[in-house]
Amino acid sequence: MSDITSRPAPLSGLRILELGHFIAAPFCTRVLADLGAEVIKVEPPGRGDPVRAWGQTPEGQSTSVWWSVHGRNKKSVSINLKDPAGIDLVRRLVGEVDAVVENFKPGQLAKWGLGPDDIAAANSDAVLVQISGFGQTGPGRDRAAFGLIGEAVGGIRHLTGYPPAVTDLPPVRTGISIGDSIAGLYGAIGLLAAIFEKRVARAGEDLPNRRVDVALTDSVLSLMEGCLPEYGYFGSVRQPHGSSLPTTAPSNAYPSRDRKWFLIGANSDSLFARLCRAMDRVALTDDPRFIDNQARVRNAEALDQEISAWTFTKTIDELEAAMKEVDVPSSRIYTVADIAADPQFRARGMIQDVADPRLGKVLHPGAVPDMGGDAGATVRWTGPEVGAHTDEILEGLLGMTATDIDRLRGAGTI
């Protein structure tokens, strides 16, 4: 058997230039960097990517703890994109990479001389991934957007709440910029698909530059399960249902005696029978209201009352033990403290104590997916300082001398 630790990382040898800021494009490239791709992130000199200042920042520091994760495994090069000399540097870098990932407003990079045609001229083989709010085409392409706008237009925000009969508060957000992250994942998939296409092209086949166009709105819409076909066929508009599911029951959050929420998904006949056994309410399985899933869905409110009456007599620990014994899908709702202490996450390397040269020990989520062995997806280094790799890249990749670099730094280009 071969030694898996001697193998290179899955994307070793793939070089990507990131012209991104905030979340979507940087998340896309972080996923690829975790898998071994060499990611060169271009940042403005001085302050760098604005997301460096997002989230909690340690006293005496100017960069947040989040950046340790968000910028990990990347090389930071500081270049002023408003300086013609800086644009020339970026064009030269484009000539040395396999792909470019950007998430500026459509047309912005073209104004700076780094549009799709400019990138194609600099490197006829480079894949271009463009992530934006509404995409590169269509009447809405120029609309400003962040992740929350993509979530609203894509439809998920309408469903993340309770029915109007329960509350008149607005639908809640997920607590993270999920629209940006979903678009970033689609960007990574599109980039790898384009690279694969090029590498399996028939001999002599001249493929044009592949442009991967990812919209936040499209990305969210693609997750909406049966909402669109149900509307097209029945004219029905799916509505928010709080923590329950409209298609299966029981599947909800139930209160424990110690005032915590416990999720139970006993939505098949066999699972429901096991739940009833744990509740010492076996007779419920013969109740016509709960005889099968369709009946349980019609009578979900009554069923939830039955289950809640039982869960409210138990602590969260007692509920977990009871459901584990009968093997019913269930869980308390984890906080990040629960996540950090979870033995399953720890065993799979999803909670990692990473040494950050700026901050000391920082908890990082592990790299996903698990590719097997130490040569898979991993954390190689933490988010670097702005421009930490400028000299390395300009010297090693573009062949510039120390004198050239000093001149550009003195002019404010880097």
From TrEMBL:
<keyword id="KW-0808">Transferase</keyword>
<dbReference type="Pfam" id="PF02515">
    <property type="entry name" value="CoA_transf_3"/>
</dbReference>
<protein>
    <submittedName>
        <fullName>CoA transferase</fullName>
    </submittedName>
</protein>
<dbReference type="InterPro" id="IPR023606">
    <property type="entry name" value="CoA-Trfase_III_dom_1_sf"/>
</dbReference>
<dbReference type="InterPro" id="IPR003673">
    <property type="entry name" value="CoA-Trfase_fam_III"/>
</dbReference>
<dbReference type="InterPro" id="IPR044855">
    <property type="entry name" value="CoA-Trfase_III_dom3_sf"/>
</dbReference>
<dbReference type="InterPro" id="IPR050483">
    <property type="entry name" value="CoA-transferase_III_domain"/>
</dbReference>
<dbReference type="GO" id="GO:0008410">
    <property type="term" value="F:CoA-transferase activity"/>
</dbReference>
